[in-house]
TrEMBL record:
GO terms for molecular function: isomerase activity; lyase activity. Belongs to the enoyl-CoA hydratase/isomerase family. InterPro entries: ClpP/crotonase-like_dom_sf, Enoyl-CoA_hydra/iso, Enoyl-CoA_hydra_C. It comes from the Bacteria. It holds the Pfam family ECH_1. This is Enoyl-CoA hydratase/isomerase. It comes from Pseudofrankia inefficax (strain DSM 45817 / CECT 9037 / DDB 130130 / EuI1c).
Amino acid sequence: MSVLVERQGAVLIVTLNRPEQRNALDGATMAGIGRALTDAEHDATVAAIVLTGAGDVFCAGLDLKAFASSGTQLAESGPGLEVFTQRLYPKPIIGAANGPAVAGGFELLLACDLVVAADSARFGLPEVKRGLVAAGGGILNLPRRLPLALALELGLTGDPVDAARAYELGLVNRVVPASEVRAEALKLAERIAANAPLAVRFTKEQMRTVAGGTDPEELNRFHKLIGPIFGSDDAREGAIAFAERRPPVWTGR
């Protein structure tokens, strides 16, 4: 299974389970995360969620080989990542970055409420290097978390930052050895889960709203604009070049 789900008391642990593919996001994986979070949202016994990856990588982002071979379509039926990347998800989610989190992997962490990172982790939005854009929330969320010049540097260069720099920027809450990431994330989740559910939900909702919450109208406009980019010749060329391990040849179309 590409997504594993387990319980530890009131904490649900969701694990991306494609270590051979660096936990890259294909249709089945995105649908699996969506189903797990949708089920958790409606399960009163789940108080907090930990999202992590199997192996030594959190998530390498979109599976570009699958993207290239599918004609740039990866969608599966049912809820996907939008259940928490494109709306205010009601329950606390702690990202446990056991290793690198780039592109869609970094966007998953940006949608989490707290993040524990391995000291070996790195983070970035390299979509522009592949003719794509950070459509999973990176473009919208990063400028809310960082000064504009820093957000633009990450978004326009596509270059990553290491865990120490991410901590300096306030993008992660803790940096620990990789072997301690899951345990540290669980400790945070259990401390949250011990509190009153209604109070926790209200606190998250209000803090997220004040910080610049998800605006449905803004998201609708955003997704209308990005459609042509993901369907462009450059997007397909970027994915194919990645799969063929060669530099892309851009046409601007």
